[in-house]
Amino acid sequence: MTTTYVPARCHCGKNTFKVAFPSVSLPTISDLCHCDACRHTTGQMAVCVVRIQGVALSATSTPDSEEPADISGLSQYQTSNRLTRYFCSTCSAHVLEYSHEFGNWSVTAGALERTDGIVNIGFHIYVGDTLDGGLSDHYRTHDGVEVPRYIEDKGSDMVPLGWKADVLKQKHENEGEDRLFIYCHCKKNQYYLTRVKEVKDAEQEWWLKPSSNESELIKYLGTHCVCTSCRLTSGFEIQSWMFLPRENIIDPATNAVINFTNPAARPKGLTQYTSTPEKEIHREFCGTCGATVFFWLPGRDIVDVSLGTVDQGQRGARAEGWIEWRKRVTQSQDAINPRMLKALMEGVEAVE
């Protein structure tokens, strides 16, 4: 049986390895999972992992001499007694998963050097957890074929494009909208966001969507990024962000604006990784569960918030009472899978 080997790594390079796939199985049909555990453990709106053959292999392994990779530099986090997730303790990238239920390993799609010809998105699962369809409304087709949206696992009831849970339908558009809570899976990072009350300069404040009438609230800009840095620090191909001023991010532990620079005032649950030292670009993630939480840099008043951390119980996973989605994909030139990029671009362009 022929085997295909694909290199994989995290952003900082401390975890570099290969994974093997039976060539006859490629491209593997996988899912985008929208469950609460996947979203809040990674900070992503949906995740794609791919089952591999055997275990992760060392970067120097050859077909004649396969050696297991050293994964001692990875942190482990168990979201249930059925699954352990492995992420880089330095740069936060989720790279591997082990299923205790089935006894097999999977690699995160974004950690792979390439995914085109390796994995195709065949269906969405656990869309019901999002309450509003989540990323499935932005990832509608793959290779021109509609991607089914299962409310739970594959084979469960499906939901249509534009679906919303009854609990969201019953809420008034602007009801209880003064705070939006965000949190990681282990809850060691819990914050809330507040609204900007007015737009002072629409051209300069590009991250704000002014209200069209007095009854409509000001929204923040949201986007999907496929840049190399976001992919390799998260382990996933699609990193979703919303932009807002730091002064609108409150740490409930202190009831003060979040502080990233003062060691005494920094939230204890955050671990910092400088992904681009020459530009002082900092990423903040949970050191316990590995969730991507924030992106910031000195001299820039705007902070990027990772949207998989949004409390879906308030307004759904897309938080559309708070977010106006950008109708393009950020850093599209970095995408490693043109099929994925095409599907995502078509989806966001179609958003009304």
UniProtKB/TrEMBL annotation:
Pfam families: GFA. Transmembrane segments: none annotated. Keywords: Lyase, Metal-binding, Zinc. It comes from the Eukaryota. InterPro entries: CENP-V/GFA, Mss4-like_sf. GO terms for molecular function: carbon-sulfur lyase activity; metal ion binding. The keyword Transferase does not apply. Residues 5-127 form the CENP-V/GFA domain. Belongs to the Gfa family. This is Mss4-like protein.
